[in-house]
Specification:
Elements lengths: L25 H16 L4 E3 L9 E4 L6 E11 L3 E6 L7 E8 L2 E6 L5 E4 L3 H14 L9 E5 L4
Antiparallel strand pairs: 1-2, 2-3, 3-6, 4-5, 5-8, 6-7
Family: Belongs to the polypeptide deformylase family.
GO molecular function: peptide deformylase activity
Organism: Megasphaera lornae
């Protein structure tokens, strides 16, 4: 495995819609492994392939309850309830803002074996899913956030 370079806001890959993964190859599986290692080493809770300069619909995330890998994820349903909370992003280091997200969603994706999987995350986990799926659609959290602030480390 290898820690990958996380690209920053301003790179055009982050503003483009990522391409669907047509076939799950050894390269895709290695990319998922490397993305997970990169996310953990960066102390993140999610990472989308565009953030490592790969225009592919791949996501890894972990809310503290174990790694989830998503290939070609799509949101099928959303709740009507919204929740506001603070978000940050590995591609926009040092900036945080309040983002409104659906409190519960239903997502369909493929796992690394090509099997269709469904998730119905709520609250914090639903927020991570939505944030990372936004990356696949060329949207950064700062485009949705209010009260954006820069935090400098002491």
């Amino acid at each position: 495995m290898a820690k990958l370079n996380i690209i920053k806001a301003g790179n055009p890959v982050l503003k483009a819609a990522a391409k669907p993964v047509p076939v799950i190859t050894k390269h895709i599986k290695k990319l998922l492994d490397d993305m997970a290692e990169t996310m953990y080493k960066a102390n993140g809770v999610g990472l989308a392939a565009p953030q490592i300069n790969e225009s592919l619909r791949l996501i890894v995330l972990d809310d503290g309850n174990g790694l989830i890998e998503l290939i070609n994820p799509e949101i099928l349903e959303t709740s009507t309830e919204m929740e506001e909370d603070t978000e940050g992003c590995l591609s926009v280091p040092g900036y945080y803002g309040i983002v409104s997200r659906y409190s519960k969603i239903k997502v369909k994706a493929l796992n690394r074996r090509g099997k269709t999987v469904y998730y119905e995350p709520e609250h914090f986990l639903a927020r991570i899913f939505q944030h990372e799926i936004d990356h696949l659609n060329g949207i950064l959290f700062i485009e949705k956030a209010k009260n954006i602030r820069k935090v400098t480390e002491a």
